[in-house]
Design goal:
The structure holds 2 protein chains of 2 kinds. Chain A is mostly helical. In chain A, 48% of the residues lie in helices and 12% in strands. Chain A has 21 helices and 9 strands. In chain A, a hairpin with a 3-residue loop joins strand 1 and strand 2. In chain A, helix 5 packs across helix 12, helix 6 runs antiparallel to helix 8 and helix 9 crosses helix 11. The longest helix of chain A has 25 residues. Chain A starts with a strand and ends with a helix. Chain B is an alpha+beta fold. Chain B has 2 domains: 113 residues, Arc Repressor Mutant, subunit A (Orthogonal Bundle); 60 residues, no CATH class. Chain B is built from 8 helices and 5 strands, in the order H-E-H-E-E-H-E-E-H-H-H-H-H. The longest helix of chain B has 15 residues. Chain B starts with 6 loop residues before the first helix and ends with a helix. The chains are: A mainly alpha, B alpha+beta. Chains A and B meet through helix 18, strand 6 and strand 8 of A and helix 2, strand 2, helix 3, strand 4 and helix 5 of B.
């Protein structure tokens, strides 16, 4: 019997009984590693700012699978048009990778990753995803291997590889990958921001396959490494501009909203405090039991796949009540504040006017004046949010394969070469904010 | 903080030592990372991103350097596909070094600037995998993550560069 799900973005999503990949996907959805994604919100604490944004990585991942099927249909059409063969097993790997791409997210996703990075533990969610897929003691691995020997490693490899290998890889990693095509529409819908317009059907209809250069540009010469990816016809240029603008607006208004960023910083501070207590054998000071999933994970040698999978948003949020009675003062204070949504008070340096020199000088003054409080984190500096038309969270530059290419005749060129609108938004803009535990400090910093 | 240790001066001095002009944000970041391993001591913190070790502190220092008029950033475009890249230039070309007063570090900066940006990325990543992530087999891991970038002799070139600089993993294993 076919399986059906109702989805606010895509409508009816059907897993056809006679389709082996659909049935494989359905069995993966039932695995506990995938069900865990029901307990990780797609936008973390954005719900504190946009109350409707309670959608999870579970619904997003299913939406990504559904979108990936549409992209594979485009791919089959384009390869046939170009008289190239279609690699069925590779397409299968891409579809499964689309479904499983978020398995490795921790609680509050990027916030948790930042906590780990600040503890000098460098393991990104992509690596956790690959480890979970390859985990022979888990339920994902045997399902994949029963379908096809070596599928688990194919899928994990596709997700941990930083640059795309071929056009099948573009389904999960390109400027038009299934992840991006789902989350932009879903986040826009669920936050209720109505930010920008995404003309999805027209974009999909105008998708073509062409080769782009992958090398980092650092001179006027061409790229030596070329790979096939999705590009758009010139007819879709206006829709592509709107697509990028929608993405820009979501970053500006939703992902980097000052209250959301502030709450993320506070959760990060709380988790770092728990990690310190667990590592020093003082978890009792947090009022969490020794066997709490956070205590287990942050204890020495505790960073196993099994312990990681025991962590999710609900584990952290469910622990706030206990932590609000901690003997350790900062744990107690942060837990109470987060329970009651009493956030630190924000000062954005854009308050000091448009002039960059003036903004940076005032920032420097605040850093010097509140140096001790910045060290003890009762004043927190946030420089982690930057946007440009190719915004992403951190990193040197947007990756070449994530840049949007339009066919100029038959040659793919980066959209900014053809669009003045996009070119005007290329310059990177950083949101620089301070969050103050004490409102009096914030007011003093303004003067 | 003393004037000379302000983060923007590290940025201006790296670009000055590079010859007053430096192409690509990725190159500037990898230079910062490798120079820090060689004794620059900037205090910048690094995390792993798409192009290997990356420092948000350095990124912020670039903004400071631009805002305070020490450095100017312009964009250029690759002819074939219009891909954009940054060109950084120091504002006062005759100004003295404030951080990189060590002639050896200046020479190393110049040397690294001449290297292919992907080779720099691989060298910085190999060092990171071995020293920070402490992966047991950095060569397998770097091939797994970086794929095609490790081909055509680039990984070997990165290994030779680290050896020349006296940095692990290749300097210790010879």
């Amino acid at each position: 019997m076919s399986r059906r799900l109702r989805d606010p973005v895509h409508g009816l999503i059907v897993f056809e009984e006679g389709n082996k990949i659909d049935m494989l996907a359905w069995s993966l959805v039932d695995a506990p590693e995938f069900q865990r994604l029901r307990r990780i919100r797609q936008l973390g604490v954005s719900e504190l700012t946009f109350p409707g944004a309670v959608h999870t990585r579970f619904s997003h991942s299913i939406g990504v699978f559904h979108t990936a099927r549409q992209l594979v249909t485009v791919l089959r059409r384009e390869l046939t048009r170009n008289q190239k063969s279609f690699d069925e097993p590779r397409a299968e790997s891409a579809l499964v990778a689309a479904l499983l791409h978020d398995l490795g997210h921790g609680p509050f996703s990027h916030t948790f990753e930042e906590v780990q990075a600040s503890r000098e533990v460098s393991k990104r969610h992509e690596k956790w995803t690959a480890d979970i897929i390859r985990n022979q003691d888990g339920q994902i691995f045997p399902i994949l291997e029963r379908h096809r020997s070596g599928l688990a490693d194919d899928v994990a490899g596709m997700l941990e590889r930083e640059d795309p290998e071929d056009i099948y890889h573009a389904v999960v990693s390109s400027s038009f990958d299934a992840d991006r095509l789902d989350y932009l529409r879903r986040d826009k819908l669920m936050t209720g921001t109505g930010a920008g317009g995404i003309d999805f059907d027209w974009l999909i209809d105008n998708l073509r396959v062409a080769e782009i250069g992958l090398d980092v540009p650092d001179d006027e010469n061409g790229a030596s490494r070329r790979v096939q990816t999705f590009c758009l016809t010139a007819k879709a240029l206006p829709a592509a501009e709107q697509f990028l603008l929608a993405r820009y607006t979501l970053h500006q208004q939703v992902y980097f909203h000052k209250a959301t960023r502030c709450a993320e910083q506070m959760i990060g501070k709380l988790l770092r405090a728990i990690a310190r207590l667990a590592a020093s054998g003082k978890i009792v000071d947090s009022n969490l039991p020794d066997n709490h999933p956070l205590a287990r994970f942050f204890s020495e040698g505790g960073e196993t796949v099994c312990n990681y999978l025991a962590l999710d948003d609900s584990v952290v949020l469910g622990a706030l009540d206990a932590m609000s009675r901690a003997t350790e003062p900062s744990v107690r204070d942060l837990a109470r504040r987060l329970q009651e949504r009493r956030l630190y008070k924000t000062l954005d340096i854009s308050e000091f006017g448009e002039d960059a020199g003036k903004q940076r000088a005032r920032k420097r003054r605040i850093e010097e004046r509140f140096a001790a409080k910045i060290t003890d984190e009762t004043v927190m500096l946030d420089e982690g949010a930057s946007i440009s038309i190719y915004a992403e969270i951190g990193g040197d530059e947007e990756r070449m394969h994530k840049k949007l290419h339009i066919l100029d005749g038959s040659t793919p060129v980066e959209i900014s070469k053809l669009s003045e609108l996009i070119r005007s938004l290329e310059r990177k803009k950083q949101f620089t904010r301070f969050y103050f535990a004490d409102v009096a400090d914030r007011d003093a910093a303004r003067n | 903080m003393p004037v000379s240790r302000k983060p923007e001066y590290y940025v201006a001095d790296i670009i000055r030592a590079a010859g007053g002009r430096l192409a690509s944000r990725v190159r500037l970041q990898k230079l910062g990372y490798l120079l820090d391993q060689l004794g620059l001591d900037s205090g910048f913190r690094y995390a792993y991103h798409h192009y290997g070790p990356y420092s948000r502190d350095l990124d912020s220092a670039i903004l400071d350097a631009e805002a305070f008029g020490l450095v100017q950033e312009d964009y250029k475009y690759r002819q074939s596909d219009g891909a954009r890249y940054s060109i950084f230039q120091v504002a006062g070309e005759n100004a003295d070094f404030t951080i990189l007063i060590d002639g050896h570090l200046q020479k190393l900066t110049k040397r690294l600037t001449s290297e292919n940006v992907t080779v720099l990325e691989l060298a910085a990543t190999a060092h990171w995998l071995d020293q920070i992530e402490k992966v047991p087999d950095w060569q397998t891991e770097i091939r797994r993550r970086k794929g095609w970038k490790t081909e055509d002799g680039r990984l070997e070139k990165a290994a030779r560069l680290l050896q020349e600089l006296g940095l692990p993993p290749t300097a210790t294993t010879g």
